[in-house]
Structure formats: structure tokens, C-alpha cells
Design a protein that fits this description.
Blueprint (H helix, E strand, L loop, with lengths): L3 E7 L8 H14 L5 E13 L7 E3 L9 H13 L6 E3 L6 E3 L4 E3 L3 E10 L8 H11 L3 E7 L1
Antiparallel strand pairs: 1-7, 1-8, 2-7, 3-6, 4-5
Helix pairs in contact: 1-3
This protein binds zinc ion (ZN).
The site of zinc ion has 8 residues, from loops.
Length: about 150
């Protein structure tokens, strides 16, 4: 059975919120997703790739916007995985830009994080910019969203 996940994560990969901020943020997101199947706030021991599942289409360079070769990207992911995603720095082959794997242009978006608010079958689409700003305010850090399909 296929499922959709709406995932709200901090923009800084290693950052984790205090427990009360995490609880409050989960309540805020829950109120925005009244038709959701399930909502959990997850904290991971290590930085984790928050992937978009079948919504993966392409990866692009954030500096020059060139499409990045999928094999190049997979090799960089393997290298970073070997550091347990502690090091996400890389240099793009198109324009030699020094960037983080967390800031590549993922279509659809993906992210690296140690914390996520995961909404299973959210019954809605992306949070609006205003809603995302509310979650950012509660957590105390800017959030980004990943919409996964499996
Ligand atoms: Zn480039």
C-alpha cells in the first residue's frame, strides 16, 4: 500500500530541539493536519537522509543550476554516509562550487536532519509559507519540508 509522508525538518542538519519545543511544534503541525493518519516527532542519534521516496526526480547545483549526474551524487552520498553524514561538504563538478549536500537542489526536496516531524498520510499538501513560519517560530529554527511518496 502506498503512503505519503509530510516531513518538517530543521535547515541545520545536526540541530535538535529541546523536548518542550519539539512537543509544541508537533502540536502546531498536528492542528494544521486534521485529516492526518499519524504524526510523530522523531529524533535520531545521527544525521539521517530525509528522502522523498518515489518523488525523487533530479538533483541540481545550487550555484549554477546545472543538473547533477545521478552517479556523481550517489558516490558523494556514499562518501558522506561513511562519515555518518557528519560531513556533508562537497564540490560540484559543474562549476566547482563548495556546497553542502543538504543544500543541493533536490527535486522534489530532500534534506538531512536529526529531527523531523513526520506526518503519515497528511490528508493535505505542503504547509504554506505562513504555516511553515509558525513551526519555525515554535522550534526556534527555520524549517524545510520534504514530501515523500512510497
Ligand atoms: Zn554548478
Amino acid at each position: 500500500m502506498s503512503e505519503n509522508l509530510l516531513r518538517v525538518v530543521p535547515t541545520v542538519s545536526a540541530w535538535v530541539p529541546a523536548q518542550d519545543a519539539a512537543d509544541t511544534a508537533a502540536e502546531v503541525v498536528s492542528a494544521m493536519c486534521p485529516g492526518a493518519g499519524e504524526l510523530v516527532a522523531c529524533q535520531y542519534a545521527e544525521v539521517t537522509f530525509i528522502d522523498q521516496g518515489a518523488n525523487f526526480e533530479a538533483v541540481g547545483c545550487p550555484a549554477c543550476k546545472a543538473p547533477l549526474n545521478a552517479n556523481w551524487w550517489r558516490e558523494r552520498m556514499d562518501d558522506a554516509h561513511a562519515t555518518r553524514f557528519a560531513t556533508l561538504d562537497t564540490v560540484t563538478p559543474c562549476c566547482s562550487a563548495a556546497v553542502s549536500l543538504n543544500d543541493l537542489e533536490y527535486h522534489w526536496p530532500a534534506a538531512f536532519a536529526r529531527f523531523e516531524i513526520l506526518v503519515r498520510n497528511p490528508g493535505r499538501s505542503w504547509l504554506s509559507p505562513d504555516e511553515a513560519a509558525q513551526v519555525s517560530a515554535v522550534l526556534g529554527i527555520t524549517v524545510r519540508q520534504v514530501f515523500s511518496h512510497y
